[in-house]
Amino acid sequence: MTSTHIEISRDGAVQVIRLNRPEKKNAITRAMYQAMTAALDAAEADEGVRVHVFLGQPEFFSSGNDLQDFMAAAMGGDMGQEVLAFLERIATLKKPAVSGVSGLAIGIGTTIHMHCDMTYATPDAQFRTPFVDLALVPEAGSSLLAPAAMGYQRAFALLAAGEAFTGEEAAAAGLIRATVPAEILEAEVMAAAHRLAQKPPVALSIAKALMKGDPGALRERIAEEVRHFAAQLRSDEARAAFMAFMSRKKDG
Ligand code: COA
Q: Measured between alpha carbons, how far is 180 from 197 in angstroms, rounded to an integer?
């Protein structure tokens, strides 16, 4: 499975993964997860790559998991192994990951950054995880990572209440590293990535592993979330939420 909606490029020792499906606001399909996992695998194994970078488009980082794929799973299809393989991959990266967010970052468009080491966003970026509104539950280890990063109440507001956090609020909450004006966002992300690429790679990777903590606990949490997520996907309330999204334009 390959995807033209993921662009992979190299800038010196930095590998850039850019989400590029503008017609669907960068909603992430199974093929896109698969393409990202393959690119991350290749970069982790390549001594010439020292840092991973994730970027989106100016108006949106991502609108989250493709809702058509959710709908297919809700109707009895399978979610596919692609998303699980991607979660395992980003949760266990040895090399540092830097990301840049401009505009919308929804669902996994937000939780992906919890696996990055430094995220920069525009001040008016919008981080939002409407899991519960879709009758789903937090994923990607976010139920473990967000309370640790931002404190329980802010994590609850984000992950359970579905409140949006601007880039400014996300930075103040400790969810991301800093905000940067839109016109220099990508330059700042790349500069940060290149600074990391200059550092002794073994020491950097050990420092990251020490701070990330026990990968076993994170894996277990991801698996627990997946069990609930899969069950909820097939619930009547989730089907109703997906149908409402699909038919919203028709209904006017
Ligand atoms: N999955 C599949 N398609 C999506 C999508 C998603 N997550 N998000 C947006 N799209 C599609 C829309 O269906 C639309 O396609 P169409 O033009 O063929 O009808 C296109 O992207 C543009 O989206 P639209 O809703 O018209 O743009 P908007 O600016 O009015 O709203 C969003 C943008 C992102 C706020 C809105 O699309 C949205 O809420 N998307 C769902 C987000 C979501 O719940 N993600 C899952 C989180 S777990």
A: 21
Residue nearest atom 29 of ligand 1, based on CA coordinates: 25
Output the CA 29–ligand 1 centroid distance in Å. Answer: 13
Rg (CA), the chain: 17
Query: Model-level pTM?
Result: 0.97
Whole-number Cα distances in Å, 13 to 16, 129, 141, 158: 10, 32, 28, 34
Write the DSSP assignment of 156-216 as a string of letters: HHHHTS---EEHHHHHHHTSSSEE--GGGHHHHHHHHHHHHHTS-HHHHHHHHHHHH--HH
| CA distances for 71 relative to 76, 129, 210, 234, angstroms | 9, 18, 39, 9
- Mean pLDDT for each consecutive 10-residue tract of the chain (252 residues)? 89 98 98 98 98 98 96 85 96 98 98 98 98 97 98 98 98 98 98 98 98 95 96 93 84 52
Question: Is residue 123 within 8 Å of 179, Cβ to Cβ?
Answer: yes
CA of 34 to the centre of ligand 1 (A): 21
* pLDDT value for 102: 98
88, HSE (Cβ side, Cα atoms, 13 Å): 11
Distance in angstroms (rounded) separating the CA atoms of residues 167 and 124: 5
